[in-house]
C-alpha cells in the first residue's frame, strides 16, 4: 500500500489519481508553482489549482468543457468550469470524477 504524506498538495495527488500521467506531471511546466494554490482551506486550494490549470492550459475553456462532456457523457458547461475555478462559488465544487476528466486535458 502506498503511503501518502500527512499534508497533501495537489502535486502529491497527481501520480496517485492519474498514474498513467505520472511521467508527464513531473515536468516543470505541469507542476503547480509554489504558492499558486495557497489558501486557508482545502476547498479554496482546489479552486485555485483548477483556476491555475485552466489558465495554463493551451485549450480554451470552451474546448475543455466540450471534451470533458464527451468523456463523462454528460454536459459540463463553461460556466461550470468558471465556478470550479472561483473560490467564491461555494455551490460549485469539482467532483473527483470531473477533476480526473480535467487533468489529462490541461496537462
Structural class by secondary-structure content: mainly alpha
- Report the strand count: 0
N-to-C CA distance: 27 Å
Which word captures the global form? globular
- Fraction of residues in helices? 40-55%
Radius of gyration: 13 Å
Number of helices: 6
Overview features:
single chain; 107 residues; mainly alpha; 6 helices; 0% strand
What does this structure look like?
With 107 residues, this protein is mainly alpha-helical. The protein has one domain (10-106). The protein is 54% helix and 0% strand. It contains 6 helices and no strands. The chain has helices spanning 10-17, 22-25, 42-56, 61-72, 78-85, 96-106. α3 (42-56) crosses α5 and α4 (61-72) packs across α6. The protein is globular and about 35 Å long. The two termini are 27 Å apart. Residues 22-26 have low confidence and may be disordered.
Question: Can you lay out the helices and strands and say which pair or pack?
Answer:
Blueprint: H1 10-17, H2 22-25, H3 42-56, H4 61-72, H5 78-85, H6 96-106
Helix pairs in contact: 3-5, 4-6
Amino acid at each position: 500500500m502506498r503511503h501518502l504524506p500527512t499534508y497533501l498538495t495537489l502535486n502529491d495527488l497527481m501520480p496517485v489519481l492519474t498514474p498513467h500521467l505520472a511521467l508527464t506531471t513531473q515536468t516543470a511546466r505541469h507542476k503547480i508553482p509554489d504558492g499558486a494554490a495557497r489558501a486557508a482551506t482545502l476547498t479554496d486550494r482546489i479552486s485555485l489549482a483548477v483556476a491555475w490549470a485552466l489558465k495554463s492550459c493551451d485549450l480554451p475553456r470552451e474546448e475543455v468543457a466540450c471534451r470533458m462532456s464527451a468523456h463523462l457523457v454528460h454536459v459540463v458547461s463553461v460556466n461550470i468550469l468558471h465556478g470550479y475555478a472561483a473560490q467564491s462559488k461555494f455551490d460549485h465544487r469539482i467532483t473527483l470524477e470531473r477533476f480526473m476528466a480535467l487533468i489529462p486535458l490541461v496537462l
